Amino acid sequence: MNTFNKLWGVVTPAEAQAKIEEQRAVLNGKTPENLEEQAISLVGTDIYEKLIKDYTEKQWGKPTTELPAFIIRRLPVRLTYDNNYFNDTYQGIPIGGYTQIVEKMLDHENIDVETNVDFFANKEQYMKDFPKIVFTGMIDEFFDYKLGELEYRSLHFENETLDMENYQGNAVVNYTDAETPYTRIIEHKHFEFGSQAKTIITKEHSKTWEKGDEPYYPVNNDRNNHLYKSYKKLADEQGNVIFGGRLGHYRYYDMHQVIGAALQCVRNELD
């Protein structure tokens, strides 16, 4: 409601809903087939143009008319004055951050950690040596791109240390305009309410993935989803390999969904 109030001057949920319904009329009752249409159906044309269109195209490198509708369904729409981004009852991050919780999970006598190892340099040997492999890399790379390459988005991070206690007053600020080259600025100290004299910020730039880059997001348009289904059939034939994560499942997961999928995988394996 705070957004609707600032944009339209409306005060009540009924007024905001009426404004959205008025702007939805441009769809003429059509079922949304792409991200643009889905966004307009959720929040109307004004908010779509001001807050969604440019940011989304910057993030994904494609027009919103070419992106699937489901991407924007992650956007919570509330007719309340609740400024939280998520609707979940419990929200937070691990104490000490994700690095610390992962380190604790790996700190076990039966677990050896090796970093900077090229799995594909010794793939055949690994497949022979281990009865079960969990693979969370790119599924098309696992099969040597034999059916063609899937598309991914990568990121470039620009870090700065600033001689001030507080730069933006929040952990994450998104930049929804087309002119700003980065999608958001992260000020790390606010995740754990730091009191350091200086602050570190990271400007996050979205870019097309190329070989040698770190892949972050699958691009789930029709072409890629169809190709993934073909790779999924090959994956299902790999009896000793469990594919998982955003890259292995070729799916845009949020953190809680990744954890949920991992727990379900364990249940499937142990049942």
UniProtKB/TrEMBL annotation:
One function term, GO molecular function aspect: UDP-galactopyranose mutase activity
Boundaries of every UDP-galactopyranose mutase C-terminal domain copy: 50-252
GO cellular component, as recorded: cytosol
Superkingdom classification of source: Bacteria
InterPro entries on file: UDP-GalPyranose_mutase_C
Gene3D superfamilies in UniProt: NAD(P)-binding Rossmann-like Domain
Name this protein carries in UniProt: UDP-galactopyranose mutase family protein
Taxonomic lineage from the root: Bacteria, Bacillati, Bacillota, Bacilli, Lactobacillales
